[in-house]
Amino acid sequence: MKSEIINIQFTRLVENACDFLEQSMMDIRDKPKYSVIHFHTAIELLLKARLLAEHWSLVITSRKEADWNTFSKGDFVSVSLDECVKKLEKIVQSPIHEKAVKIFKNVTNHRNQMVHFYHASHTSEERDIQTQIIIKEQLTAWYFLHELLLNQWSDIFSNHKERILEIDFKLKKLHIFLEVVYENKKEEIDSQKMKFDFLACPACNFESAKHNKNGLDELYEAKCLVCEFSFYNYLTKCPSCQTGNLRYLGLPYANCESCGFGAGNEILFEKCVGVDAYSAHESGLGYSFPISCGVCSGYETVIELPNERFLCTDCFNVESNYGCCEWCNNPSINLSDMTYVTGCEFCEGRMGWEKDD
Fold first, then answer.
1. What is the pTM of this model?
2. Of 60, 290, 351, 354, which is least packed with CB atoms within 10 Å of its CB?
3. Under 8 Å CB-to-CB from 138, ≥6 apart: which residues?
4. Neighbours of 144 (CB within 10 A)
C-alpha cells in the first residue's frame, strides 16, 4: 500500500513538473513573470521526484519531523532547492553538477525578483530584451536538467522519457527568440572563423559556440556568443572507427560523430594520463592519480593535466591545485576549510569520530 502511494505521488510530481514546463513555454512572450515562476517550480518538482524515488521522507524539509500519515495526505512542508541539492549529494549519493546548481539557483533568484519586483514592459523592444534573457536562462538550465533526467537518473525517469523528449523538442524551438541576438553576433563570429571553430551550442543550438581551432586532445573552455553558455570541451579520435571524433561537452560521455560509438569517461581518463599510467591504475600497480573530487563526490575521478590543472572526469570541474583531508588523508580537489574537524566528502572528520565514540 505504501509503495503504491509513493508511485502515485512520484507520477504526479513528474506530470505536474512537465505541465509547468509546457505552461512556461506558452507564457514566455505575453506573461514572462509566470514563465519564470513556472519554470522554477518545474525544476523543484523534478528534483523532489528524484528524492521521493529514493525515500519518501527525503521530500520533507529537515526542519520538520517526517510523518508518513501527514505525508500520505499531502499535509507537509517540502524541501527547498538548497535542501534538495544537499540531500541528493549527501544521502542519495547522486550529486548535481556544480555548474547546474549555480544555474538552477539563478532561476530561483530570477523567480524571486519576478514575484517581488516585476513590472510589465511598456515597449515591444523592452519585451524582446526581457524574453531573450529568460530564454537564455531556461535553455541553459534545461541543458543540465535534461542530462539529469535522461542520463544520470535515466532509470528513475524511464517511464516519462517520451514526454521529456517532447518537451526538449518544444524548448529547443524557443531559440527562435534569440535569432536577433545571433544576427547581431554573426559579423563578430564570421570575423573570428580563421582563428576559431564555431559549432552548434548544446544549449541554444546556434552555431555560435566558440571552440579552439583543431583542438584535438586538448581541454579548453568553449563559450557560446549567443546564449553565453560556457563549458569545458575535450575532443579526441574515436577508438572504434579511427576517423570520427569524440567530443566531450562538459559531460563524462560522448558519441562519435561518424560511427555513433558511445564512450564514458574511461576514454577521457586514458587519453589524458597516458596508456601506461592508465594500465597501472587499472591493474592496481599504483599511480599517484586519480584523486577524488570534492565538488561532485567522485571517488578517484580527478586526473592531472599539463600546466598544473586537475580535471574531474565526472563533473568536468577544473582546479589549479589540490590538497589532502587533514583527517582521513584522502587527496581531493575543492576541499573545504578545517577538514581535520569537519572532514571531507569521504569522512566526517574528528566531529564524526567523537560522535560515534
1. 0.75
2. 354
3. 24, 35, 39, 107, 171, 174
4. 22
